[in-house]
Design goal:
Elements lengths: L17 H20 L6 H10 L5 E2 H7 L4 H13 L3 E5 L7 E5 L1 H25 L1 H18 L2
Antiparallel strand pairs: 1-3, 2-3
Helix pairs in contact: 1-5, 5-6
Organism: Pseudaquabacterium pictum
Protein name: Transcriptional regulator
GO molecular function, one term: DNA-binding transcription factor activity
């Protein structure tokens, strides 16, 4: 990987930094998504967990943490909340009783279906505001950034 140094003048406006722009975009997306899923009384983190588990394949906490972009303590707290609401359940892995898997419940599947409508509407509004072509370009660039910065 080639590293290109981009030096900014000392008086550079913060909004010119990529880190700031990504954080700002994330904040806007998060706020819009939070409003769209608020009727279901779930957080964005809950939505991500439910969305991943909606394929009805049990996941270990480690695998789930990686997929939903959460550290283990935060994931554990979120799973506890979802269990208390009856949206997910924990069960011992049939292959390895020492391992616990997390599964979505039938109620969780109903909630994730309703959430999908709201999340898709939110993303549709973003696509309408930006234009579908720009959204696809942005997604491509972000995926490329993620892939290339991981190495």
């Amino acid at each position: 990987m080639t590293v290109i140094a981009l030096t900014m003048p000392a008086d550079q406006d913060i909004s010119e930094y990529l880190a700031y722009l990504l954080a700002s975009a994330n904040r806007r997306m998060h706020l819009g998504l939070a409003q769209s899923i608020a009727p279901e009384e779930v957080t964005e983190e809950h939505w991500r967990v439910l969305q991943v588990l909606s394929d009805e394949q049990g996941r270990s906490m480690g695998e789930l943490a990686e997929r939903v972009l959460m550290n283990h303590p935060a994931l554990t707290k979120n799973i506890d909340r979802l269990v208390s609401r009856g949206l997910v359940q924990r069960a011992a892995d049939a292959q390895d009783n020492r391992k616990v898997l997390v599964y979505i419940s039938d109620l969780g599947l109903e909630v994730v279906q309703r959430l999908k409508v709201n999340v898709d509407a939110h993303h549709g509004a973003v696509a309408e505001a930006m234009g579908p072509r720009k959204v696809e370009q942005l997604k491509k660039l972000l995926k490329q950034f993620i892939d290339e910065s991981a190495t």
